[in-house]
Amino acid sequence: MEHLDVAEGYASLNTAAVNSPYQNVDRRGSDTRQGTLLLEAGTLLRAPEIAVAASAGMARVRVSSQPAVMIVSTGDELIEPGDPIADYQVRRSNAYAVAATLRTRGFGRVGDDHLPDDEVLMRERLALHLTTHEVVVLSGGVSMGKFDLVPKVLMQLGVQQVFHKIAQRPGKPMWFGIGPQGQAVFGLPGNPVSTLVCLIRYVIPAIAEAMGTKRAAPERLALSAPVTFQPALTYFLPVAIEHDDWGRPWANPRRTNGSGDFLSLTGTDGFVELPPGPNTYPKGFVTTVYRW
Question: Could you give the C-alpha distances from 131 to 149, 150, 160, 205, 280, in angstroms and in order?
Fold first, then answer.
């Protein structure tokens, strides 16, 4: 209509208009050809992918099912956020952080339980969870303390240990095993920063791999300031992603006050993975970023 002149009830084509066959008409097959693969196996179905499937007339789409995940915190010292607290107690926070992370990434079948440091009760409840869930994520009880009962109880239940401890900081005591029916069992350290780092770095990628999800290219950024690290361990360092005056993103290091310092994670976007020390990684050192 923008190229028409209308006068006295008559419409005429503007003399300055340029006209050509099929102008402003999308012809059949102009977007893609018949037989072209529209969505690869393992593609995450977001809004654009769902629209593509619908436009192709696919009323039903074959997808991989999400696993049922049970989150289990352990320890007599843990109490719920709303309960009165004694001097020797700490708030139960890890389970809520794990659940929030999983749900943010689209996992809807997430359960939650808490177990005291009681070997008999722990064995009974974990046996139940292993029969009803494909993935069990435990927080705490995997170190070398007197009440770190998780590895012992899991092996009693037929869960075969694959590894225990990783040369990293934080999260060195992490435990992983496979249950009698192929259940994936992750024993994460109880310190909050360790729990969240191990969840992001190992648990979520493992679930995605088991579901057949196509791997995304890792995000890599440069450090905005030098970092010195002495131990011969892989170092996971929280960062805030900031942009300079040219719009370039940088990973700004935010050191924690140990692996129990959850407060230091507020305002951060994730963490970077640095090679084992001793070394000083200069400003501009490029490494992989994992977002919360």
Answer: 20, 17, 15, 23, 48
**Residue 54: its H or E element:** helix 47-55
Contact 250, 244 (CB under 8 A): yes
Asked if residues 104 and 91 have their Cβ atoms less than 8 Å apart, the reply is no
What is the pTM assigned to this prediction? Answer: 0.88
pLDDT at position 20, please?
A: 83
> Strands 69-74, 110-115: parallel, antiparallel or unpaired by DSSP?
parallel
Phi, psi of 273 (to 5 degrees): -110, 115
Give the torsion through C-alpha atoms of 165, 89, 104, 218, to 10 deg. -30
Alpha-carbon gap, residue 139 to 186, rounded angstroms: 9
Q: What are the pLDDT digits (tens) for 210-224? A: 999 999 899 999 999
pLDDT tens per residue across span 233-284: 999 999 999 999 999 999 999 999 999 888 999 999 999 999 999 999 999 9
Provide the sign of the torsion angle of the four alpha carbons 256, 98, 103, 49, taken in this order. positive
Query: Which of 281, 173, 172, 278 has the alpha carbon at shortest distance from 232?
Result: 278
